[in-house]
Amino acid sequence: MSRRSGILEFAVLGLLRESPMHGYELRKRLNTSLGVFRAFSYGTLYPCLKTLVANGWLIEEPGSTHEDALAAPLTGRRAKIVYRLTAEGKEHFEELLSQTGPDAYEDEHFAARFAFFGQTSRDVRMRVLEGRRSRLEERLEKMRASLARTRERLDDYTLELQRHGMESVEREVRWLNELIESERAGRDLKGSASGGSAQQDTTTGSTGGLPRAGENPGTDTPGDTAT
Question: Does the domain made of 3-97 have the CATH classification 3.40.640.10?
Fold first, then answer.
């Protein structure tokens, strides 16, 4: 399984943990709530759903409502298929949610993981945030070294592009520092005391709120090509 398909499976399981959905609704949620999946098509989503069903992590149910199920034979249209998370699927998602390996720090995977921080324990959130920060600090060091070596050979526009990339990474590191400080202080993203899970927000700013759909501060880094 490729890394990208693994991210999609993780996100699908996470969304279906909230409530059952049919494929069209699920794709809309992936696009609007998790902007990292904007490029995904039905041709990508449905094979993923079939795989999850075959693994026993999802079940298919006809019709999103009782009325839909009754109307399908009368209209001749195929009833909508609703996907529901099984107990095994929930257990598998929770296992994925607890993982803090290097993949969790990469750009797309981190965005998906962060979107489900509200379902993630505090200690796991801390490890993912600190791992992401370390990864970006390494990237920033390489970008600075590369820029120092090539500065004299770059024209003004290319140089500005490299600087823009560095500033984007620096901005995300500052954002991560704020989130880590809040986690260590036992605060959720709105500043009140919290227990084991983060409270999701859709605002951004110096207080370290969640990025809006599709935003992952600092990951759109054209200057990263200088590594």
Answer: no
Cα–chain-centroid distance for residue 118? 12
Rounded Cα distance between 91 and 57, Å, is: 9
Sign of torsion, CA 128 132 133 137? positive
For residue 93, give every residue at least 6 positions away whose Cβ sits within 8 Å of its Cβ, in sequence order, or none. 10, 13, 14, 17, 57, 85
What is the C-alpha R_g of the chain? Answer: 21
Nearest to 95 by CA among 205, 183, 9: 9
Q: 110 and 216 in contact (C-beta within 8 Å)?
A: yes
Q: Alpha-carbon distance 135 to 130, whole Å?
A: 9
Give the span between the Cα atoms of 210 and 106, in whole angstroms: 17
Segments in the chain below pLDDT 50: 191-215, 218-227
Q: What is the pLDDT of residues 63-80, one digit of tens each?
A: 655 555 555 555 555 668
Cβ–Cβ under 8 Å, residues 216 and 36 = yes
Residue at token pair 């590594």 = 227
